[in-house]
Design a protein that fits this description.
Organism: Desulfofundulus thermosubterraneus DSM 16057
Order of helices and strands: HEHEHHEHEHHEHHEHHEHEEHE
CATH class of the largest domain: Alpha Beta
InterPro entries: Asparaginase/glutaminase_AS1, Flavin_trans-like
CATH architecture of the largest domain: 3-Layer(aba) Sandwich
Protein name: asparaginase
Strand order of the largest sheet: 3-2-1-4-5-6
Family: Belongs to the asparaginase 1 family.
Shape: globular
Radius of gyration: 20 Å
CATH topology of the largest domain: Rossmann fold
GO molecular function, one term: asparaginase activity
Length: 293
């Protein structure tokens, strides 16, 4: 490292710390803070970055981004470029300046966005293997009840990105195992969407908070055809028995579908329920219609 590069790094760190010190614990009314957790994938990365940059441009100073890069993400992507395009408040890099700060920043934020969810991170989350800063922060966010939205392109073996790379020829057991990971984390509360829809989904969640005056809630989509196979229509539960047992929503898997479909091919989903990806695949392949019970 040359003397000039060292000076630039020092100046950047000083400015980052000064900027960090100016962040109040509570944002002004109407402002939203998002923690962007970047993991080391490339499929859908450009589209996701453009979506988040567009959202920042639309909302201006009313939206603040913080970014946490995993080690692999920092090696693959350019943290400075992401920081500039998203006009971030702070950039954290695992192994450099993130120690203990991920949880600190999480306390300031309204929701968490994963623009590139990799197969590795999906597997870690599904197994609750918290051996990386990204996995730990995401589980912490879910345990705090924060909405977590993830672009699943780099973790979904059936996505167009894998097909373009020639990685769509795996045996069914392998493909199913990767899809199972997505089903599990969707059950944990992660909203999985295509990268090209990331901005609109996050904007809708922010809008729901503005309307309700509470934390952003899981996304409500149209009643029959969801844009993402990993998120079926859902609303806040009105089933007292469910509310008394747990604060989490009901999860409908393939095993429960037989009891929910009638002889006319209509599946009646209880209010507040989340349908897993594999269950939705069954519904879609069978051509069943979905109605809210």
């Amino acid at each position: 490292m040359t003397g000039e590069e060292l000076v630039n790094r020092i100046v950047e760190e000083v400015l980052r710390r000064l900027n960090r010190a100016q962040v109040p614990a509570s944002p002004p009314p109407g402002h939203r803070r998002i923690l962007v957790v970047v993991t080391g994938g490339t499929i859908g990365a450009r589209a996701a970055l453009e979506e988040l940059a567009r959202l920042k441009k639309e909302r201006g100073v009313g939206l603040e981004y913080f970014i946490l890069f995993s080690r692999s993400a920092a090696a693959i992507h350019d943290p400075e470029k992401w920081g500039r395009e998203l006009q971030v408040v702070d950039v954290l890099i695992e192994g450099e300046n993130s120690r203990g700060r991920g949880t600190e920043v999480l306390k300031l934020c309204d929701l968490v966005v994963v623009p590139v969810l990799t197969r590795a991170t999906a597997a870690r989350l599904a197994s609750l293997l918290l051996d990386s800063a990204a996995a730990e922060v995401l589980v912490d966010a879910l345990m705090r009840g924060l909405p977590v939205v993830a672009a699943s392109d780099a973790a979904d073996p059936t996505s167009e990105g894998f097909a373009r790379l020639g990685m769509n020829r795996g045996r069914p057991a392998l493909v199913q195992a990767l899809k199972d990971n997505l089903e599990i984390i969707a059950g944990y509360g992660v909203t999985l969407v295509p990268a090209r829809e990331l901005g609109s989904v996050v904007a809708e969640m922010i809008g729901r908070r503005a309307d309700s005056g509470t934390a952003p809630q899981p996304l409500v989509r149209s009643k029959n055809v969801p844009k993402s196979p990993y998120q079926l229509p859902a609303v806040l539960s009105s089933v007292p028995a469910v509310e008394q047992r747990s604060e989490r929503r009901m999860v409908i898997t393939r095993a429960e579908l037989a009891a929910l479909v009638n002889n006319k091919g209509v599946v009646r989903i209880p209010r507040g329920a989340l349908v897993t990806p594999l269950a939705w695949d069954v519904i879609r392949d069978a051509g069943w219609q979905v109605e809210e019970a």
